Amino acid sequence: MKNSKALVIIAFVAIYVIWGSTYLFNKIAVTELSPFFLASIRFLVAGSLIMIIAKALKKSLVITKKQLLNTSISGFLFLVYGNGVFVWALKYVDSGFAALLAATQPLFVLLLLRLIDQKPMQKKSIIGVLLGVFGMYLLVSQKEIAVSEESLLGIFMMFTCVLSWSYGSVFVSKADLPKNFFVSTGYQMIIAGLILMIGSLGFNEEWIVPNLWSFKVQMSLLFLIIFGGIFAFTSFNYLLKVVSPEKVSTSAYVNPVIAMFLGWYFLDEAFTTQSIIASIVLLTGVYFITSRKRL
Q1: 239 located within any domain
Q2: SS3 56
Q3: How far apart, in whole angstroms, are the C-alpha atoms of residue 47 and residue 45?
Q4: If you compute the radius of gyration of the chain from its CA atoms, what whole number of angstroms results?
Q5: Containing domain of residue 152, as a range?
Q6: CA dist., res. 165 & res. 188, Å (int)
């Protein structure tokens, strides 16, 4: 039990801190690379490395037809649509506004659980979601968010991405997937990487060989592959099987806070009193959702 609790804590730190830092590294990488091309390289390399490690650890890579189908569905919901399309939509939407849209994920998860399982929403969960959204509003309201005609498509697509990721969280918690979380993650990433590569070719994105990337972009992609991909996404899949989906979705609150701190430290972005207040409100919202009766 102690080991299990320790693993849960480590996994939450991974999806909170590491995924929060991917905002910074994605921002650096996308300055030179096209979004679908970037995502395809990231997930194909990460997925292949996971499979090599799993084989070295003598984990079974055998997968049934049903598990392959479910893995393909979850990989599409999370990585192709939920991640790849979201990054593409950033071209049309202010990053602060995008963070606010992403923060609606826990609300989507709670509503989906209510619709699918007829699961009642506890008062603490509702209060937590409201506090989280209010905290995100405080965070992004410091800058003017201009909504141009061009950004309407991006905003709509981002909402569909949040819904895709939220449904994926509920789907994975119930689906028949490979028992080993490492192997399951590897299959999801490789399948998603192949789909994203086809998408990149379909949209005629520019492909640039790695030796022509700047050192900053090379290091950013390395971080996204090893930590953002292998470690954090494996942790995410693990958590979806051992704790409730709405608790896992609280990363949508904490990630922007981490991103804000890193942006302030590395990019000299403004860090105001309102930012500190927003962080406190966000984390309070996380507390209300994670302090529900059932883990």
Answers
A1: yes
A2: helix
A3: 5
A4: 18
A5: 20-127+145-255
A6: 14
22-59 as b/e, with b when 16 or more CB fall inside 10 Å? Answer: bbbbbbbbbebbbbbbbbbbbbbbbbebbbeebeeeeb
Q: Is residue 4 part of a domain?
A: no
pLDDT at 145: 52
> What are the phi and psi torsion angles at 173 (to 5°)?
-65, -20
Name the token pair of 184. Answer: 């399951």
Overall number of domains in the chain: 1
DSSP state at residue 271 = -
Contact 112, 276 (CB under 8 A): no
Question: What 8-state DSSP symbol labels residue 118?
Answer: -
Residue 143 has a pLDDT of 59
Degrees, nearest 5: CA angle 97-101-105:
155
pLDDT digits (tens, 9 = 90+) for 215-255: 999 999 999 999 998 899 889 888 988 888 878 878 877 88
Question: Is residue 35 included in any domain, yes or no?
Answer: yes
CA distances from 42 to 33, 59, 74, 77, 149 (A): 12, 23, 17, 17, 31
- Which residue positions in the chain have pLDDT lower than 70? 1-3, 94-97, 100, 119, 139-140, 142-149, 269-271, 290-295
In single-letter form, the type of residue at position 238 comes to Y
- pTM for the model stands at 0.82
Rounded Cα distance, 79 and 104, in Å? 18
Q: In this structure, is residue 10 part of a structural domain? A: no
The length of the chain, given as a count of residues: 295
Residue 122: what pLDDT? 80
Q: pLDDT value at position 82? A: 93
Tokens read off for 2: 């102690």
- Per DSSP, helices labelled H in 94-180 are 95-102, 105-117, 123-140, 151-174
